[in-house]
């Protein structure tokens, strides 16, 4: 039995930041760095023109010197605010109210808090006290697809349930001038802040993706390729020189799972231009088929776990023909791959 995904709704950070502004900020804070020229080249070639932060670039918790406590608290507070707005919009898009929801699945990796996003949203949205909860806190960029997988699992066990999926990330919390590696500069330009939400059900409420199969894969011996790190200055995102190859190294397992099934459209995690193009090529698709991922990256940046929800939202603006088979594929630290296969329901 398929799990039906209603139209996603996303909320972006309030402050638009251009790549030129980030390049200028790096020049200001690292004027004498011997690799400044290389920093600026990678920033300008990351595939992102604009991105949105919840707070201004020069605020203490972004380009300033706030400590780990202030940064982490600000990130979680902003994530909750955005997620409430995205969830409310997703409920409206599905024609539902808070009282209709039986379970909530959340993903959030950029601000530490106990209780986490799931409990905060139960209170803020007025969900029922008996709402089932799954809170994902470490899957990061793969979080959107992982959450949809968990929602599909819930619907398979309880076909009448309506599951609210919410992703919220404040990746600008990792924008930190205490780190001066070339990887840190790439992530300054790549990451952005947003929240996204969607409803998953056992019966279709609207047009959209119908999930028929799911896939999770951890590439052996790659836990260090992408990783989060905390110190007194805040959260940092690190990677190794092998990191850019990890997605392509996972494709044989992905294709083995697909086993020749048709892929007429794809929502690909917009982690980088190379990640998008390599995945599209592996799936037998051209650049046009990957345009929603490429446009998301260029206009809004890498939104972490929210990314796939945003790409699916864009897909609704020019949907595939009814019945077209397709996939959603995302990648995260671990190195992990999460994927869905299904068809477009109209």
Fold and architecture overview:
The chain is an alpha+beta fold and 346 residues long. The chain folds into two domains: 3-201, Peroxisomal Thiolase, Chain A, domain 1; 208-345, 3-Layer(aba) Sandwich (Peroxisomal Thiolase, Chain A, domain 1). The chain has ten helices and 14 strands. It has helices at residues 19-29, 36-44, 68-93, 117-125, 143-157, 182-190, 246-258, 273-282, 291-300, 307-315; strands at residues 3-5, 9-12, 15-18, 50-53, 103-107, 132-136, 162-170, 193-201, 208-218, 226-231, 234-239, 265-268, 325-332, 336-345. Strands 1, 2, 5, 6, 7, 8, 9, 12, 13 and 14 form a ten-stranded mixed β-sheet that branches. It has a two-stranded antiparallel ribbon with strand order 3-4. The radius of gyration is 19 Å and the shape is globular. The chain starts with a strand and ends with a strand.
Question: CATH topology of the largest domain, what is it called?
Answer: Peroxisomal Thiolase, Chain A, domain 1
Q: Give the N-terminus to C-terminus distance in angstroms.
A: 16 Å
Q: Please tell me the CATH architecture of the largest domain by its name.
A: 3-Layer(aba) Sandwich
Specify the overall morphology. Answer: globular
Q: Give the total of domains.
A: 2
Instruction: Kindly provide the radius of gyration, computed on alpha-carbon positions and rounded to a whole number of angstroms.
Output: 19 Å
Number of strands: 14
Assigned CATH superfamily of the largest domain = Thiolase/Chalcone synthase
Low-confidence stretches: none
Order of helices and strands: EEEHHEHEHEHEHEEEEHEHHHEE
Largest sheet report: 10 strands, mixed
Organism: Streptomyces antnestii
Keywords: Transferase
Protein name: PhlD
Pfam families: Chal_sti_synt_C (PF02797), Chal_sti_synt_N (PF00195)
């Amino acid at each position: 039995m398929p799990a039906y995904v209603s139209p996603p709704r996303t909320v972006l950070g309030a402050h638009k930041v251009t790549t030129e502004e980030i390049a200028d900020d790096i020049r200001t804070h690292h004027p004498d760095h011997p690799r400044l020229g290389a920093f600026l080249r990678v920033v300008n070639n990351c595939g992102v023109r604009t991105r949105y932060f919840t707070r201004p670039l020069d605020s203490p918790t972004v380009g300033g010197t706030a400590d780990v406590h202030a940064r982490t608290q600000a990130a979680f507070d902003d994530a909750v605010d955005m997620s409430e707005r995205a969830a409310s919009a997703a409920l409206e898009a599905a024609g539902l109210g808070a009282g209709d929801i039986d379970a909530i699945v959340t993903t959030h990796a950029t601000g530490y808090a106990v209780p986490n996003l799931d409990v905060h949203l139960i209170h803020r949205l007025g969900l029922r006290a008996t709402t089932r909860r799954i809170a994902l806190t470490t899957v990061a960029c793969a979080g959107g697809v992982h959450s949809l997988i968990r929602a599909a699992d819930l619907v398979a066990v309880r076909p009448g349930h309506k599951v609210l999926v919410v992703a919220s990330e404040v990746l600008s919390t990792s924008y930190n001038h205490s780190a001066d590696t070339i990887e840190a500069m790439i992530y300054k330009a790549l990451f952005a802040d947003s929240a996204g939400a969607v409803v998953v059900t056992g019966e279709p409420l609207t047009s959209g993706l119908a999930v028929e199969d799911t896939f999770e894969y951890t590439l052996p011996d790659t836990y260090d390729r992408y990783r989060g790190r905390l110190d007194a200055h805040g959260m940092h995102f690190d990677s190794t020189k092998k990191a850019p190859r990890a997605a392509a190294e996972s494709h044989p397992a992905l294709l083995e799972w697909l086993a020749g099934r048709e892929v007429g459209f794809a929502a690909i995690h917009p982690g980088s231009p190379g990640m998008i193009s390599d995945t599209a090529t592996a799936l037998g698709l051209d650049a046009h088929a990957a345009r929603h991922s490429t446009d998301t990256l260029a206009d809004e940046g890498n939104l972490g776990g929210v990314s796939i929800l945003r790409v699916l939202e864009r897909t609704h603006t020019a949907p595939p023909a009814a019945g077209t088979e397709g996939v959603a594929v995302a990648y995260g630290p671990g190195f992990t791959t999460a994927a869905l296969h299904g068809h477009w329901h109209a």
